[in-house]
């Protein structure tokens, strides 16, 4: 739980009182790899701080799933659009490794916003971070080649190759597994 406080302290200094309120709402959940955390059509009920592990966000398809994002340890993870709107999720979230989550329910997060001095600051920072990640991804899809997206992914998260199956990486960068094999041959 201390990792969460450290992460949050980088956003805004937090009083012991605010931390007590925040931490009292957290529940810990250990999840094995290959577990679906959020199914398409379900409403996201949790904002989770992922202490350890990797998850992928994807749209299930009959022939091939479309992976559009990954989330890693020491970051928040959620079907955030569903969480905010209280509506059904158009995608799924699955663990790729064993994952340790510290979760807040939607209602508990509303209480944190209302009862702490830093709740609104943390919320704004989380929204800004999500916006920046989505904007970066969108611009990369419009401007970069698949090869450049592959290289960028491993520049930013170099240990990925050990944990993420190549078929998910291929989907994420917008190529077939065979196309990813050609890219990997070219750059080695």
UniProtKB/TrEMBL annotation:
Specify the Cyclic nucleotide-binding domain's residue ranges: 29-114
The residues that cross the membrane are: none
| Pfam families assigned | cNMP_binding (PF00027)
Q: Which domain of life is it from?
A: Bacteria
Q: Which segment of the chain is annotated as a signal peptide?
A: none
Name of this protein: CRP-like cAMP-binding protein
Instruction: Please name the source species.
Output: Mucilaginibacter lappiensis
Source lineage:
Bacteria, Pseudomonadati, Bacteroidota, Sphingobacteriia, Sphingobacteriales
